[in-house]
Amino acid sequence: MVDNADQSSEARQKLAALQGKTGKRPNIVVFLLDDVGYSDFGFNGGGEAVGNATPDIDRVAGQSLVLSSAYSQPSCSPTRATIMTGQNMAHHGIQVPPMYGQPGGLAG
User: Fold this and answer.
1) pLDDT one-digit tens code per residue, 9-20
2) Residues 34 and 64 placed together within one structural domain of the fold
3) What letter would DSSP give residue 50?
4) Domain presence at residue 3
5) For residue 61, what are the domain limits?
6) Above 80 in pLDDT, residue 1?
7) Where does residue 3 rank: exposed (0-12), middle (13-18), buried (19+ CB within 10 A)?
8) How many domains does the chain have?
9) Coil, strand or helix: which one is 12?
10) 66/29 same-domain check
11) Among the residues of the chain, which ranges form H helices?
């Protein structure tokens, strides 16, 4: 993890304010999408500007704390395996998606 002190501080303040306002900790929703780029959505400068409006996800983003400092891979397999195991891709070994007929996947 690369810690950005300003973003971390702002996130902690916003989460504390939300908990103080509602009396409970917030729900966290992770959207895991394949074949989308950072600027494909309107809230990141894309959407209608690149020929595909994204009003629903833009509305969700507008009502949320968007955490944008992250690493990504060129396919969703490493990310899915990381979420499922809690391990970095260097540890679980899924670095590319197995193609049809190839061995691969998570053991067990």
Assistant:
1) 988 898 899 899
2) yes
3) G
4) no
5) 25-70
6) no
7) exposed
8) 2
9) helix
10) yes
11) 5-22, 55-62, 77-85, 89-92
